Amino acid sequence: MAQSAHKSLRNGDMLYGYGKYSDAETEYRKAESAKSSVKSAYNLGNTLMNQERYDEAAKKYTDAAAKATTDKERANIYHNQGNALYKKQQYQESVNAYKQSLKYNPDDAATKENMAIARRELKKQQQQQQKDKQNQKNKDQNKEQNKDQQDKNKDQQEKDQEGKNDPQNKDQQQENEQNQEKDGDKQPSDKKMSKQDAQKLLEIMDNEEKKVQQKMRRVDGKSRKVKKDW
């Protein structure tokens, strides 16, 4: 089993060196099955990284770290795990992995640089998340305000409709309409005269008639006078 694992590791390393990562993965998995070791887990994680399978790589580095026996191994494993998590845009987890690496190799410049980059991206990510959260809050508030306004408009429309359907208002409306029709039909000549006004008019007419008769009699009397015989 040990010889088989060793042979698979050698084949995996050769294929990895030629950039044949899929074939190298196959050999490293054989080595893992024959006899799992920190080297087989770590190298398998590296082949997965080169195939952009970052989630699988990060998990495999965790397996490798559990088998590591030296600070150098742990530093290298956590450094690469930080790289895999960074590729997944899990910046907080990436920073944590780099911290673990520096714990075992405090002077590693590459790890420090990568951690600084991850922190910068983490800050930008947090700012964007806060902005998205505020935008969503504003959107929800606007949606609620619009809903309240729609409810108010609906209530007002229902009240207006109830007012139209109210029997008292309906009767008043019909009465107003009838009065408008009557007023529209009225003409000056259709206005009826009261009995008292009619009596007064008759008296005026009688008086006028008497005046005319008297005047005519005066005229007739003058015409009947005998003319002088010249």
Please tell me about this protein's structure:
This protein is mainly α and about 230 residues long. Among the domains are: about 1-65, Tetratricopeptide repeat domain (Serine Threonine Protein Phosphatase 5, Tetratricopeptide repeat), CATH 1.25.40; about 70-145, Alpha Horseshoe (Serine Threonine Protein Phosphatase 5, Tetratricopeptide repeat). The protein is about 85% helix and about 0% strand. The chain is built from nine helices and no strands. It has helices at about 1-15, 20-35, 40-50, 55-65, 70-85, 90-105, 110-165, 165-185, 195-225. Helix 1 runs parallel beside helix 3 (about 40-50) and helix 3 (about 40-50) packs parallel to helix 5. The radius of gyration is 56 Å and the shape is rod-shaped.
Instruction: Provide the helix percentage.
Output: over 70%
Low-pLDDT residue intervals, each spanning 5 or more residues = 185-190, 222-230
* Main β-sheet description: none
Shape from CA axes? rod-shaped
> Which architecture of the domain at 68-143 per CATH?
Alpha Horseshoe
Q: Whole-number average pLDDT?
A: 83
Radius of gyration: 56 Å
Summarize the helix and strand pattern as letters: HHHHHHHHH
Q: Can you count the beta strands?
A: 0
Strand pairing plus helix content: what structural class? mainly alpha
Give the CATH class of the domain at 68-143.
Answer: Mainly Alpha
Number of helices: 9
> What is the CA-CA span between the terminal residues?
185 Å
> Into which percentage range does the β-strand content fall?
under 5%
CATH topology of the domain at 68-143: Serine Threonine Protein Phosphatase 5, Tetratricopeptide repeat
